[in-house]
Amino acid sequence: MSGFEVPDYTQAISQFVVDSPTSYHAAQAVAARLEKRGFKAVDETVAWDSSIPARGYVIRDGAIAAWCLPSAPSERTGFRIVGAHTDSPALKLKPQGAIVREGWEMINAEIYGGALENSWLDREVGLAGRLTTYDGAVHLVRTGPIARTAQLAPHLDRSAHENLHLDRQAHMLPLTALAGEAVSCHDIENYLCEQAGISPDQLAFHDVFTYLVQPPSVFGLRQEFLASSRLDNLSSVHAGLVALENLAGTENDAAVFVAFDHEEVGSGTRSGAGGPFLQDVLHGLAAVMGFVGDGERALLARSSCISADAGHSVHPNYGQLHDPQVRPLINHGPLLKINARQRYATDAVGGAIWKRACRAAGVPTQDFVSNNSVPCGTTIGPITASRLGITTVDVGIALLSMHSAREMCGVEDGPYLARALHAYWAEN
Predict the structure, then answer these.
(1) Which of 143, 276, 295, 390 could form a disulfide linkage to 126, CB 3.0–4.6 angstroms apart?
(2) Which ranges in 134-269 belong to alpha helices (H)?
(3) Which pLDDT score, from 0 to 100, does residue 252 have?
(4) Do 1 and 8 meet the contact criterion of CB atoms below 8 Å apart?
Protein backbone atom coordinates (compact mmCIF):
# COMPACT_ATOMS: atom_id res chain seq x y z
CA MET A 1 0.00 0.00 0.00
CA SER A 2 1.20 3.52 -0.74
CA GLY A 3 0.47 6.98 0.59
CA PHE A 4 -0.22 6.04 4.22
CA GLU A 5 3.10 7.17 5.72
CA VAL A 6 2.94 10.52 7.48
CA PRO A 7 5.38 12.50 5.27
CA ASP A 8 3.86 11.26 2.00
CA TYR A 9 0.32 11.66 3.27
CA THR A 10 0.95 15.20 4.55
CA GLN A 11 2.45 16.27 1.25
CA ALA A 12 -0.43 14.69 -0.67
CA ILE A 13 -3.24 16.24 1.38
CA SER A 14 -1.52 19.63 1.21
CA GLN A 15 -1.47 19.42 -2.58
CA PHE A 16 -5.07 18.16 -2.59
CA VAL A 17 -6.20 21.25 -0.66
CA VAL A 18 -4.33 23.50 -3.09
CA ASP A 19 -6.01 21.71 -6.01
CA SER A 20 -9.47 21.95 -4.38
CA PRO A 21 -10.41 25.57 -3.63
CA THR A 22 -14.11 24.73 -4.12
CA SER A 23 -16.31 21.66 -4.14
CA TYR A 24 -16.29 21.64 -7.95
CA HIS A 25 -12.50 21.57 -8.05
CA ALA A 26 -12.41 18.90 -5.33
CA ALA A 27 -14.67 16.57 -7.32
CA GLN A 28 -12.42 16.98 -10.35
CA ALA A 29 -9.27 16.44 -8.27
CA VAL A 30 -10.67 13.19 -6.85
CA ALA A 31 -11.62 12.02 -10.35
CA ALA A 32 -8.16 12.81 -11.73
CA ARG A 33 -6.46 10.71 -9.08
CA LEU A 34 -8.90 7.83 -9.44
CA GLU A 35 -8.38 7.71 -13.19
CA LYS A 36 -4.67 7.13 -12.57
CA ARG A 37 -5.75 4.00 -10.65
CA GLY A 38 -7.92 2.69 -13.46
CA PHE A 39 -11.33 4.08 -12.46
CA LYS A 40 -13.53 5.05 -15.41
CA ALA A 41 -15.94 7.97 -15.69
CA VAL A 42 -19.63 7.08 -16.04
CA ASP A 43 -22.31 9.34 -17.49
CA GLU A 44 -25.37 9.51 -15.24
CA THR A 45 -27.53 10.91 -18.05
CA VAL A 46 -27.64 7.56 -19.87
CA ALA A 47 -29.04 4.21 -18.74
CA TRP A 48 -26.64 2.02 -16.77
CA ASP A 49 -26.22 -1.57 -17.88
CA SER A 50 -23.72 -4.40 -17.66
CA SER A 51 -21.13 -2.23 -19.42
CA ILE A 52 -20.72 -0.11 -16.30
CA PRO A 53 -17.10 -0.55 -15.13
CA ALA A 54 -16.41 -2.46 -11.93
CA ARG A 55 -14.20 0.47 -10.90
CA GLY A 56 -15.94 3.69 -11.85
CA TYR A 57 -17.08 7.11 -10.74
CA VAL A 58 -19.73 9.70 -11.51
CA ILE A 59 -19.68 13.46 -10.83
CA ARG A 60 -22.76 15.51 -10.07
CA ASP A 61 -21.89 19.20 -9.78
CA GLY A 62 -19.58 19.47 -6.72
CA ALA A 63 -20.14 15.88 -5.58
CA ILE A 64 -18.53 12.63 -6.68
CA ALA A 65 -19.33 8.97 -6.08
CA ALA A 66 -16.90 6.14 -6.88
CA TRP A 67 -17.13 2.38 -6.49
CA CYS A 68 -15.34 -0.93 -6.64
CA LEU A 69 -17.71 -3.83 -7.35
CA PRO A 70 -17.11 -7.47 -6.37
CA SER A 71 -16.28 -9.89 -9.14
CA ALA A 72 -18.97 -12.36 -8.06
CA PRO A 73 -21.88 -10.77 -6.12
CA SER A 74 -23.82 -13.21 -3.94
CA GLU A 75 -26.70 -13.29 -1.49
CA ARG A 76 -24.22 -12.06 1.15
CA THR A 77 -23.22 -8.93 -0.80
CA GLY A 78 -23.87 -5.50 0.65
CA PHE A 79 -22.63 -1.98 0.09
CA ARG A 80 -19.84 -0.65 2.29
CA ILE A 81 -20.11 3.10 1.95
CA VAL A 82 -17.80 5.89 3.06
CA GLY A 83 -19.39 9.33 2.93
CA ALA A 84 -17.81 12.78 3.26
CA HIS A 85 -18.40 16.29 1.90
CA THR A 86 -16.48 18.62 -0.40
CA ASP A 87 -17.71 22.07 0.68
CA SER A 88 -16.48 24.44 3.41
CA PRO A 89 -17.62 27.82 4.79
CA ALA A 90 -16.58 30.79 2.65
CA LEU A 91 -17.90 33.98 1.06
CA LYS A 92 -19.99 33.45 -2.08
CA LEU A 93 -20.10 35.95 -4.93
CA LYS A 94 -23.48 37.58 -5.53
CA PRO A 95 -24.73 38.56 -9.00
CA GLN A 96 -23.42 41.97 -10.09
CA GLY A 97 -20.40 41.20 -7.97
CA ALA A 98 -18.63 44.58 -7.94
CA ILE A 99 -19.70 47.37 -5.59
CA VAL A 100 -18.08 50.76 -4.88
CA ARG A 101 -17.62 52.21 -1.40
CA GLU A 102 -15.64 55.33 -0.50
CA GLY A 103 -13.43 55.07 -3.57
CA TRP A 104 -12.81 51.34 -3.15
CA GLU A 105 -14.03 48.57 -5.44
CA MET A 106 -15.42 45.75 -3.28
CA ILE A 107 -16.66 42.21 -3.92
CA ASN A 108 -20.38 41.88 -3.26
CA ALA A 109 -20.56 38.58 -1.39
CA GLU A 110 -22.63 36.67 1.17
CA ILE A 111 -21.65 34.17 3.84
CA TYR A 112 -21.80 30.49 2.83
CA GLY A 113 -22.12 28.11 5.76
CA GLY A 114 -21.21 28.69 9.40
CA ALA A 115 -18.00 30.60 8.80
CA LEU A 116 -15.95 31.83 11.76
CA GLU A 117 -16.18 35.29 10.28
CA ASN A 118 -13.33 37.03 12.07
CA SER A 119 -10.91 34.42 10.68
CA TRP A 120 -11.49 35.80 7.17
CA LEU A 121 -10.26 39.25 8.15
CA ASP A 122 -6.87 40.43 6.88
CA ARG A 123 -6.25 37.35 4.74
CA GLU A 124 -5.56 37.45 1.02
CA VAL A 125 -8.12 35.45 -0.91
CA GLY A 126 -8.78 34.42 -4.46
CA LEU A 127 -12.03 33.59 -6.21
CA ALA A 128 -12.80 30.11 -7.53
CA GLY A 129 -15.78 28.15 -8.73
CA ARG A 130 -17.70 27.50 -11.92
CA LEU A 131 -19.05 29.70 -14.70
CA THR A 132 -21.87 28.51 -16.97
CA THR A 133 -22.29 29.84 -20.48
CA TYR A 134 -25.48 30.11 -22.49
CA ASP A 135 -24.70 26.89 -24.33
CA GLY A 136 -24.81 25.02 -20.99
CA ALA A 137 -21.05 24.43 -20.76
CA VAL A 138 -19.40 24.60 -17.34
CA HIS A 139 -16.02 26.31 -16.96
CA LEU A 140 -14.01 25.95 -13.76
CA VAL A 141 -12.13 29.08 -12.79
CA ARG A 142 -9.73 30.27 -10.09
CA THR A 143 -7.81 33.47 -9.62
CA GLY A 144 -4.73 34.31 -7.65
CA PRO A 145 -4.86 36.60 -4.60
CA ILE A 146 -7.12 39.48 -5.59
CA ALA A 147 -9.03 40.51 -2.46
CA ARG A 148 -8.87 41.11 1.30
CA THR A 149 -11.41 41.92 4.00
CA ALA A 150 -9.62 44.61 5.97
CA GLN A 151 -10.19 44.91 9.70
CA LEU A 152 -10.75 48.27 11.37
CA ALA A 153 -7.80 49.61 13.36
CA PRO A 154 -8.43 49.68 17.14
CA HIS A 155 -7.61 53.42 17.17
CA LEU A 156 -10.95 53.93 15.41
CA ASP A 157 -12.95 51.57 17.61
CA ARG A 158 -11.58 50.99 21.10
CA SER A 159 -14.46 48.62 21.92
CA ALA A 160 -13.10 46.04 19.46
CA HIS A 161 -10.73 44.79 22.18
CA GLU A 162 -13.70 43.78 24.34
CA ASN A 163 -16.47 43.06 21.85
CA LEU A 164 -15.73 42.54 18.17
CA HIS A 165 -18.99 42.73 16.22
CA LEU A 166 -19.02 42.02 12.50
CA ASP A 167 -22.08 42.99 10.50
CA ARG A 168 -22.24 40.60 7.54
CA GLN A 169 -23.32 43.28 5.08
CA ALA A 170 -21.30 46.22 6.37
CA HIS A 171 -18.03 44.61 7.44
CA MET A 172 -17.44 41.37 5.50
CA LEU A 173 -17.10 42.54 1.90
CA PRO A 174 -13.55 42.08 0.54
CA LEU A 175 -11.81 45.01 -1.16
CA THR A 176 -10.19 44.26 -4.49
CA ALA A 177 -9.15 47.56 -6.13
CA LEU A 178 -9.24 51.32 -5.99
CA ALA A 179 -12.30 52.37 -7.92
CA GLY A 180 -11.67 53.75 -11.39
CA GLU A 181 -13.76 56.38 -13.13
CA ALA A 182 -16.19 53.90 -14.69
CA VAL A 183 -16.65 50.88 -12.47
CA SER A 184 -19.18 48.35 -13.72
CA CYS A 185 -21.13 46.12 -11.35
CA HIS A 186 -19.96 43.31 -13.61
CA ASP A 187 -16.22 44.02 -13.26
CA ILE A 188 -15.67 40.92 -11.14
CA GLU A 189 -17.59 38.67 -13.51
CA ASN A 190 -15.71 40.15 -16.47
CA TYR A 191 -12.40 39.41 -14.76
CA LEU A 192 -13.46 35.82 -14.05
CA CYS A 193 -14.47 35.37 -17.69
CA GLU A 194 -11.04 36.60 -18.75
CA GLN A 195 -9.40 34.07 -16.43
CA ALA A 196 -11.62 31.28 -17.79
CA GLY A 197 -11.01 32.23 -21.42
CA ILE A 198 -14.60 33.04 -22.29
CA SER A 199 -16.28 36.21 -23.49
CA PRO A 200 -18.35 38.07 -20.85
CA ASP A 201 -21.35 38.10 -23.19
CA GLN A 202 -21.30 34.28 -23.07
CA LEU A 203 -21.68 34.18 -19.27
CA ALA A 204 -25.10 33.04 -18.09
CA PHE A 205 -24.48 32.48 -14.35
CA HIS A 206 -21.87 31.49 -11.76
CA ASP A 207 -21.18 29.71 -8.47
CA VAL A 208 -18.02 31.42 -7.20
CA PHE A 209 -16.47 31.49 -3.71
CA THR A 210 -13.56 33.04 -1.92
CA TYR A 211 -10.72 30.72 -1.00
CA LEU A 212 -7.63 31.22 1.13
CA VAL A 213 -4.53 31.46 -1.07
CA GLN A 214 -2.12 30.68 1.80
CA PRO A 215 -0.97 27.06 1.29
CA PRO A 216 -1.08 24.42 4.04
CA SER A 217 1.85 24.36 6.46
CA VAL A 218 3.31 21.86 8.91
CA PHE A 219 4.20 23.48 12.23
CA GLY A 220 4.83 22.81 15.91
CA LEU A 221 7.80 22.10 18.15
CA ARG A 222 7.93 18.55 16.80
CA GLN A 223 6.32 19.36 13.42
CA GLU A 224 3.24 17.42 14.48
CA PHE A 225 0.49 19.79 13.29
CA LEU A 226 -0.93 20.82 9.94
CA ALA A 227 -2.56 24.23 9.40
CA SER A 228 -4.78 24.50 6.33
CA SER A 229 -8.00 25.80 4.92
CA ARG A 230 -10.88 23.38 4.24
CA LEU A 231 -9.78 20.57 6.58
CA ASP A 232 -13.50 20.39 7.34
CA ASN A 233 -14.00 18.31 5.33
CA LEU A 234 -11.24 17.69 2.80
CA SER A 235 -9.48 15.79 5.58
CA SER A 236 -12.13 13.07 5.24
CA VAL A 237 -12.38 13.29 1.44
CA HIS A 238 -8.64 12.77 1.12
CA ALA A 239 -8.59 9.87 3.60
CA GLY A 240 -11.37 8.12 1.68
CA LEU A 241 -9.59 8.77 -1.60
CA VAL A 242 -6.29 7.30 -0.38
CA ALA A 243 -8.11 4.26 1.01
CA LEU A 244 -9.88 3.71 -2.32
CA GLU A 245 -6.71 4.22 -4.36
CA ASN A 246 -5.14 1.37 -2.40
CA LEU A 247 -8.11 -1.00 -2.65
CA ALA A 248 -7.03 -3.79 -4.97
CA GLY A 249 -10.55 -5.19 -5.21
CA THR A 250 -13.41 -6.53 -3.13
CA GLU A 251 -14.43 -10.14 -2.61
CA ASN A 252 -17.94 -9.97 -1.17
CA ASP A 253 -19.17 -6.41 -0.77
CA ALA A 254 -19.28 -3.38 -3.04
CA ALA A 255 -17.08 -0.50 -1.85
CA VAL A 256 -18.63 2.92 -2.45
CA PHE A 257 -17.08 6.31 -1.75
CA VAL A 258 -19.27 9.41 -1.94
CA ALA A 259 -18.27 13.02 -1.32
CA PHE A 260 -21.37 15.21 -1.20
CA ASP A 261 -21.66 18.96 -1.65
CA HIS A 262 -23.62 21.52 0.43
CA GLU A 263 -23.24 19.90 3.86
CA GLU A 264 -22.38 23.28 5.35
CA VAL A 265 -25.77 24.68 4.30
CA GLY A 266 -27.96 21.73 5.24
CA SER A 267 -27.41 19.13 2.47
CA GLY A 268 -30.82 19.71 0.90
CA THR A 269 -29.73 19.88 -2.75
CA ARG A 270 -29.45 17.50 -5.71
CA SER A 271 -25.75 17.00 -4.91
CA GLY A 272 -26.12 17.04 -1.13
CA ALA A 273 -26.68 14.15 1.25
CA GLY A 274 -30.33 15.14 1.58
CA GLY A 275 -30.83 14.74 -2.15
CA PRO A 276 -31.07 11.59 -4.27
CA PHE A 277 -27.45 11.37 -5.47
CA LEU A 278 -26.27 8.40 -3.42
CA GLN A 279 -29.60 6.61 -3.72
CA ASP A 280 -29.46 7.01 -7.50
CA VAL A 281 -25.94 5.60 -7.65
CA LEU A 282 -26.72 2.65 -5.38
CA HIS A 283 -29.88 1.86 -7.34
CA GLY A 284 -27.89 1.75 -10.58
CA LEU A 285 -25.11 -0.37 -9.10
CA ALA A 286 -27.60 -2.77 -7.52
CA ALA A 287 -29.19 -3.38 -10.91
CA VAL A 288 -25.79 -3.90 -12.54
CA MET A 289 -25.00 -6.56 -9.91
CA GLY A 290 -28.37 -8.24 -10.50
CA PHE A 291 -30.24 -7.03 -7.40
CA VAL A 292 -33.66 -5.76 -8.40
CA GLY A 293 -37.02 -5.44 -6.66
CA ASP A 294 -36.97 -6.95 -3.19
CA GLY A 295 -33.41 -8.08 -3.84
CA GLU A 296 -32.33 -4.44 -3.78
CA ARG A 297 -34.09 -3.88 -0.45
CA ALA A 298 -32.28 -6.88 1.03
CA LEU A 299 -28.99 -5.63 -0.42
CA LEU A 300 -29.41 -2.31 1.39
CA ALA A 301 -30.33 -4.11 4.61
CA ARG A 302 -26.95 -5.87 4.43
CA SER A 303 -25.14 -2.56 3.87
CA SER A 304 -23.42 -0.05 6.14
CA CYS A 305 -22.01 3.46 5.94
CA ILE A 306 -19.15 5.29 7.63
CA SER A 307 -19.91 9.01 7.64
CA ALA A 308 -16.51 10.71 7.86
CA ASP A 309 -16.53 14.36 8.91
CA ALA A 310 -14.10 16.34 11.04
CA GLY A 311 -14.71 16.60 14.80
CA HIS A 312 -13.35 18.54 17.76
CA SER A 313 -10.22 18.07 19.82
CA VAL A 314 -10.41 19.29 23.41
CA HIS A 315 -9.30 22.94 23.33
CA PRO A 316 -6.64 23.83 25.93
CA ASN A 317 -7.99 27.37 26.38
CA TYR A 318 -11.66 26.39 26.58
CA GLY A 319 -11.61 23.05 28.37
CA GLN A 320 -14.84 23.83 30.24
CA LEU A 321 -16.78 23.63 26.95
CA HIS A 322 -15.93 19.96 26.43
CA ASP A 323 -17.26 16.87 28.16
CA PRO A 324 -15.56 16.60 31.58
CA GLN A 325 -14.71 12.92 31.10
CA VAL A 326 -14.22 12.30 27.36
CA ARG A 327 -11.25 14.42 26.23
CA PRO A 328 -10.06 13.54 22.71
CA LEU A 329 -6.77 14.98 21.45
CA ILE A 330 -5.21 15.65 18.07
CA ASN A 331 -2.86 12.87 16.87
CA HIS A 332 -4.44 10.27 19.17
CA GLY A 333 -6.54 8.65 16.46
CA PRO A 334 -9.80 9.45 14.62
CA LEU A 335 -12.97 10.09 16.60
CA LEU A 336 -16.04 7.92 17.01
CA LYS A 337 -18.73 10.61 17.27
CA ILE A 338 -21.66 9.86 19.58
CA ASN A 339 -24.79 11.84 20.49
CA ALA A 340 -27.87 10.68 22.39
CA ARG A 341 -30.18 12.82 20.23
CA GLN A 342 -28.77 11.22 17.08
CA ARG A 343 -27.14 14.37 15.81
CA TYR A 344 -24.57 11.74 14.92
CA ALA A 345 -25.87 8.42 13.58
CA THR A 346 -23.57 6.20 15.69
CA ASP A 347 -25.21 3.36 17.59
CA ALA A 348 -23.87 0.14 19.12
CA VAL A 349 -23.98 -1.78 15.83
CA GLY A 350 -22.26 0.98 13.86
CA GLY A 351 -19.76 1.54 16.65
CA ALA A 352 -18.76 -2.13 16.47
CA ILE A 353 -18.21 -1.82 12.68
CA TRP A 354 -15.87 1.12 13.28
CA LYS A 355 -13.99 -0.51 16.17
CA ARG A 356 -13.53 -3.68 14.10
CA ALA A 357 -12.07 -1.66 11.21
CA CYS A 358 -9.69 0.19 13.52
CA ARG A 359 -8.55 -3.07 15.13
CA ALA A 360 -7.94 -4.63 11.70
CA ALA A 361 -5.91 -1.57 10.65
CA GLY A 362 -3.99 -1.31 13.92
CA VAL A 363 -5.27 2.23 14.35
CA PRO A 364 -6.14 3.98 17.65
CA THR A 365 -9.55 5.59 17.97
CA GLN A 366 -11.14 7.97 20.47
CA ASP A 367 -14.70 8.66 21.55
CA PHE A 368 -16.23 12.11 21.14
CA VAL A 369 -19.33 13.37 22.96
CA SER A 370 -20.47 16.94 23.55
CA ASN A 371 -20.71 18.77 26.82
CA ASN A 372 -24.40 18.54 27.82
CA SER A 373 -24.63 22.34 27.98
CA VAL A 374 -23.11 22.94 24.53
CA PRO A 375 -25.16 22.40 21.33
CA CYS A 376 -23.96 19.54 19.12
CA GLY A 377 -23.46 19.90 15.38
CA THR A 378 -24.54 17.27 12.91
CA THR A 379 -23.29 15.57 9.75
CA ILE A 380 -24.37 13.68 6.66
CA GLY A 381 -24.64 10.56 8.84
CA PRO A 382 -28.21 10.91 10.16
CA ILE A 383 -29.37 12.13 6.74
CA THR A 384 -27.87 9.10 4.98
CA ALA A 385 -29.24 6.68 7.57
CA SER A 386 -32.76 8.08 7.32
CA ARG A 387 -32.75 8.22 3.50
CA LEU A 388 -31.43 4.69 2.96
CA GLY A 389 -32.28 2.84 6.16
CA ILE A 390 -28.76 1.46 6.54
CA THR A 391 -26.56 1.23 9.61
CA THR A 392 -24.42 4.37 9.75
CA VAL A 393 -21.61 5.44 12.06
CA ASP A 394 -20.09 8.93 12.39
CA VAL A 395 -16.32 9.35 12.61
CA GLY A 396 -13.66 11.92 11.70
CA ILE A 397 -10.31 13.36 12.68
CA ALA A 398 -10.00 15.93 15.48
CA LEU A 399 -9.51 19.60 14.64
CA LEU A 400 -8.99 22.88 16.40
CA SER A 401 -10.45 26.08 14.92
CA MET A 402 -13.16 24.28 12.96
CA HIS A 403 -14.90 26.64 10.50
CA SER A 404 -12.00 29.05 10.65
CA ALA A 405 -10.55 30.12 7.32
CA ARG A 406 -7.46 28.19 8.52
CA GLU A 407 -8.02 25.12 10.68
CA MET A 408 -5.50 22.76 12.27
CA CYS A 409 -5.16 19.00 12.70
CA GLY A 410 -2.47 16.45 13.58
CA VAL A 411 -0.28 14.98 10.85
CA GLU A 412 -0.85 11.43 12.15
CA ASP A 413 -4.65 11.42 12.21
CA GLY A 414 -5.21 11.59 8.45
CA PRO A 415 -3.16 8.44 7.79
CA TYR A 416 -4.91 6.75 10.73
CA LEU A 417 -8.31 7.52 9.21
CA ALA A 418 -7.24 6.38 5.75
CA ARG A 419 -5.96 3.06 7.13
CA ALA A 420 -9.18 2.45 9.06
CA LEU A 421 -11.35 3.19 5.99
CA HIS A 422 -9.19 0.88 3.88
CA ALA A 423 -9.65 -1.89 6.44
CA TYR A 424 -13.42 -1.31 6.50
CA TRP A 425 -13.54 -1.86 2.75
CA ALA A 426 -10.93 -4.64 2.55
CA GLU A 427 -11.81 -6.97 5.41
CA ASN A 428 -13.94 -9.99 4.55
Answers:
(1) 143
(2) 187-196, 231-245
(3) 87
(4) no
